[in-house]
Amino acid sequence: MRDVIIACDFSSREQTLAFLDRFTGRKPFVKIGMELFYACGPEIVREIKARGHKIFLDLKLHDIPNTVRKAMSVLSRLDVDMTNVHAAGTIDMMRAALEGLTRPDGTRPLLIAVTQLTSTSQERMQNELLIGATINETIVKYAQNAKAAGLDGVVCSPLEAELVKNNCSNDFMTVTPGIRFADAAADDQVRITTPARAREIGSDFIVVGRPITAADDPVEAYERCCREFIGE
Ligand code: C5P
Hints:
The structure is a single chain. This protein is an alpha/beta fold. It is 44% helix and 16% strand. The protein contains 11 helices and 8 strands. The chain has helices at 13-21, 34-40, 42-50, 65-77, 91-101, 122-127, 135-148, 158-167, 195-201, 210-213, 218-229; strands at residues 3-7, 29-33, 55-61, 82-86, 110-114, 153-155, 173-176, 205-208. An 8-stranded parallel barrel has the order 1-2-3-4-5-6-7-8, surrounded by 6 helices. α4 (65-77) links the parallel β3 (55-61) and β4. α4 packs parallel to α5 (91-101) and α7 (135-148) packs across α8. It is globular and about 45 Å long. Bound molecules: cytidine-5'-monophosphate. Cytidine-5'-monophosphate (C5P) is lined by residues 7, 9, 33, 117-118, 155, 177-178, 187, 189, 207-211.
């Protein structure tokens, strides 16, 4: 199940497809986020899917349960492989998302939850959102809520993956960004780790953007990630 997901943080269809054209061998699992989806619409998902890639559609839905249920049934028809919601939307909303995603034949994309965004500091949680618990307490509680709702896992920092696994279960998936090669720059990421260490910690999927997209040889960087994280 372990896999490397490339974050395709490009703003245009042309840039994205030119990047993906380089991968003539193994077709990577790719993450499409809000920027590309809002710029190009659902067609970009169909196009990348038709090229043989698996897709994590990272739209982080958060609304009333009925709206999320209906939106998820539309995304499910796009045949994505993984998508997500904010756990802050509550257990009811996450259950509704799962219902919406489930196709008539019972199959569905993987559904994971965002716990606390890494951009949210403890100070902001307390002063702006009036949440008194620590970040780790909220991550654990939100992950447990996601599990109670029947979701497959959460997005979290690799340094939190162990905490989530210990407090949910070992088979509850962790999808972890914040990955850097040992010999590379951190960019704007703070809590980072290497693909090899993410594997040891127990991440199920790593989400890797700039270490691959901005590399001189993106295919070689991707293959290096796979060797370190998957072992192949
Ligand atoms: O380029 P880089 O490897 O830092 O990209 C990481 C990807 O993971 C980006 O698409 C970023 O938005 C996403 N992400 C993250 N941290 C989170 C959640 C998502 O870096 N907590």
